[in-house]
């Protein structure tokens, strides 16, 4: 088992390394650099040369990549082009704010999705299933910025209950984000619940039609005992990967939602850095998002194998 875990961790580390190389190469081939973006019309002559010397941009690309990658492993993401401030400090509060948004959305969305998915499966093709499935399809179809705009119109403009735009500064305390964070959480919960409950519904329906469930029913096992003891433990395993993808999506910074609500999170910071041509910050945020995505999916993969002995045995035989 430990051998399998270390193998997965090694593959995850290699993936992050390859992604970091792709990110660096993508930024490297863009026209201009941090100095031309920062100096704009003055990017010429001695001034441009001095800027590139200060930032080390005149060094070979492979040397700069190794320095950047090794620094990232130590938590040093370099300096921003605008202001020459440590990127780790700039990102710190933004990452915390995105974590707050993701945590609140997960706290509300995951239990709700599991409950609605089970209800829809157990009452398949009946009124509860039709109602839940219709709302889920609508949530998956309607763009996020549309649902966000509707919520702002209803709860902020018409009713005046909740602020429609987050005006709290990025470095404010967590308590200061309430109740302005409620509308972004509602939009994210609406979207993530739809994706997860569809997977849970399909898994429960498949488990109810399985041989072990049918055999238990033939032996006279009570219906609800079959559901809770035999069906749900097996049906919820496939949902782990979907939940992990949703968490990675949330933690990676939901760009559209953070932009619509002016929420000072990681996604909004990335949009601002692209607009300002602050390439070092864009590069650092892309690496953080990629690392979070790989890490969460790796954790879900390991959790699925631990929870499912048959899958763990299959992987060990392949190894």
Strand content: under 5%
- Number of helices in the DSSP assignment: 15
What coarse outline follows from CA principal-axis ratios? Answer: globular
Would you list the SSEs in sequence order as H and E?
HHHHHHHHHHHHHHH
Q: Could you tell me the number of beta strands?
A: 0
Instruction: State the helical fraction.
Output: over 70%
Rg computed from alpha carbons, rounded to a whole number of angstroms: 24 Å
The major β-sheet equals: none
Overall SS class: mainly alpha
Cα distance, first to last residue?
11 Å
Arithmetic mean pLDDT: 82
Low confidence ranges: 314-318
Write up what this structure looks like.
Helix 1 (2-28) runs antiparallel to helix 14 and helix 5 (87-122) packs antiparallel against helix 6 (127-141). Mean pLDDT is 82; it is low at 314-318. The relative contact order is 0.14. This protein has helices at 2-28, 34-39, 45-55, 61-73, 87-122, 127-141, 144-158, 182-208, 211-218, 223-235, 239-251, 255-260, 266-275, 279-307, 309-318. The longest helix has 36 residues, at 87-122. It has 319 residues and is mainly α. The N and C termini lie close together (11 Å). It is 75% helix and 0% strand.
Q: Keywords for this structure?
A:
15 helices; single chain; 319 residues
Write the layout of secondary structure elements.
Elements: H1 2-28, H2 34-39, H3 45-55, H4 61-73, H5 87-122, H6 127-141, H7 144-158, H8 182-208, H9 211-218, H10 223-235, H11 239-251, H12 255-260, H13 266-275, H14 279-307, H15 309-318
